[in-house]
Amino acid sequence: MEKTFPPPASPSPSCVLITSRCYDRRMPAKVPWIPSVLPPGARPERCPSCGRMALIPWTLRRDNDTKVVLRTWVCTECQTLVERPEPE
Ligand SMILES: [Zn+2]
User: Fold this and answer.
1) Is the whole model's pTM more than 0.70, yes or no?
2) With contact defined as beta carbons under 8 Å apart, do 47 and 77 qualify?
């Protein structure tokens, strides 16, 4: 008998719809919240701003013009945001 894996936890599609509607009505100021502690299991990189090992991958977005997937990295120490192209 094969083991079945639990379905991956994924954000519900309604979240995306609500978000895009919000974007239409009023542009939210950047981000709702910024992590201020390293999540368990995080593999932080060195922050280009404060130099501490606290830069973690955070959100993904796709650039509408270039179709490039961009990963926003955030420093949990100084809250610096860094956007890098994400290899697919
Ligand atoms: Zn920093």
Assistant:
1) no
2) yes
Alpha-carbon separation of residue 32 from 27, 73, 80 (angstroms): 12, 15, 14
CA neighbours closer than 13 Å in the CB half-sphere of residue 36 = 2
Amino acid at 60: L
Distance 79 CA to ligand 1 centre (A): 6
Consecutive H or E run containing 70: strand 69-75
Residue among 15, 26, 22 at smallest CA distance from 59 = 15
pLDDT tens digit sequence for 25-72: 455 555 567 888 998 999 999 999 999 999 999 999 999 999 999 999
> Rounded to the nearest 5 degrees, what angle is found at the Cα of 17, between the Cα atoms of 15 and 23?
105
35 CA distance to ligand 1 middle (Å): 12
Q: How far is the CA of 81 from the centre of ligand 1 (A)?
A: 9
Residue 56 Cα to ligand 1 midpoint, Å, equals 10
